[in-house]
Amino acid sequence: MLKMLVVDDDKFERDGVKFLIEKYGLNLEISEADSGESALAYIESNDIDILFSDIRMKGMDGLQLAAKVRELGRPVKVIFMSAYGEFEYAQRAIDLKAIRYILKPVQVSEFIKVVSQVIQLCEQELKSKAQQERMEEAYRKEVHYEKQKLMTDLILGKAEVADEDRELSMPITGFDGYCYVRMLMLDSRSRFFDRLDPDFERQLAETVRRGFDFIHLNEFQGLLLVEAFAEESLEALTDLGQQLIRWFRDKYGREICIVVSGLVDDVKQLYKEYYAMESMLENKFFFDEGTVLLANRTSFATGDVTAAVNDGLEELTLNIQHNRYDIARLRFEQLFDALQGSDHYSVIYVKYVCSEIVKAIFDASAKKNTDKFKLSLESIYRTTKLNDLRKVVLTILEENESSGRTSAEAMPKAIEEVVRIIESEYNTDLSLELLAERIYLSPNYLSHLFKKQKRISINKFITLYRMEKAKELLRSTNRKIVDIGHDVGYSNFPYFSSLFKNHYGKSPSQFREEA
């Protein structure tokens, strides 16, 4: 409802205006003031659409009030009412861009006509403003989608930027005055990023406090591109990561892991840095949730590494006990990479871990060869280089693998079973943990083995498969698009639509129209 302020130092006149408004059903919310000063104070703290004011008043008159309102820059429609018809008043009213000028005594027909015209003018302007805002919002969304699509292509290595026609300069994210960015991979072990509220990015901006763009990768991962500085310390980056971790924990009750990329000043670096971040996440099982990892760094910012190493040894032992030496060998390489790359441990400790692996092999063997066990331990402690130590343990694992070929095809069969589950149950709430449980592997192993076998992460594979299925349904059925989103596993339609457009450069409805 439009709001009108009636200003007159005569209460009888104010009551008369309110009576006519009510009697003739004019759609207005009425407030009143008995002086120009009180009217100005009201307008300074309240929005109004129409100012209906007498001209001749004690103190600040109506003309002075209108001039003050114009100085405030308020788009208020002004109607003057006065018993004086002198030209000087009418002329000044015109100068103040008054909409109408009504003479006292007020003629009812004239009053209704004037006020109705002003109401209509206000409604037309509001309608035009709303339409303009809708057009601007649609344009902003289209630009956002296009940027998301380009950024996604660049990060995933699908965009060719070498051509002169597509030469892109930093910053590509629209950060004014900045030539560097860093990427922060936000990783959740359970489905989360398709369930964010619409106000997520605005609230995130209050935490990041620097220019950023956010890209939806899949339900388990999001990617932040933030303004960066060449001289920024690793401690500052770690602090930013921990700040985000606390924010997600406090606001959503969600623990996330964050990987921070190296400094990027050329779009061609995005794919390389993104790949390094994905590789780093393969080793996230060595660290607790709520950890900040720095890509391409040998030491890690936080996390209980010792507990993770113990967990790794436990998993290795279980695989050895189940005669799955092919998987145990891969798990050892991951474990050794983390130990070798960490500055938390001495060579003696690394050798101790390796000796525990050899002991697990000895304990699991049906025919316990004590002499061979002792020789294996001696070979471990005689090594002078870590790379030699790796080779010694790998040789021991491979020897046992070759003598127990019952699980030689375990890895590819396990991965194919995962693919079968995804292809048949893609419309359900799939997650790495659920899939790992189904095939009796740890989530960490499965993540590593799947990428090794398929050259793509599980989350990315699930997303791509769902997108292909959505494309098929859009082409071959007349089902509602919101239902198609649900059919392929996305109950959040805006998220599904955004993700689809990131992959294909068109919204689902545009794709269907052009198909």
Automatic annotation (TrEMBL):
The modification 4-aspartylphosphate is found at D54. The keyword Transcription regulation applies. SMART domains: HTH_ARAC, REC. Keywords: DNA-binding, Phosphoprotein, Transcription, Transcription regulation. InterPro entries: CheY-like_superfamily (IPR011006), Homeodomain-like_sf (IPR009057), HTH_AraC (IPR018060), HTH_AraC-typ_CS (IPR018062), Sig_transdc_resp-reg_receiver (IPR001789), Tscrpt_reg_AraC-type_HTH (IPR020449). SUPFAM superfamilies: CheY-like (SSF52172), Homeodomain-like (SSF46689). Gene3D superfamilies: 3.40.50.2300, Homeodomain-like. This is Response regulator. It comes from Paenibacillus phytorum.
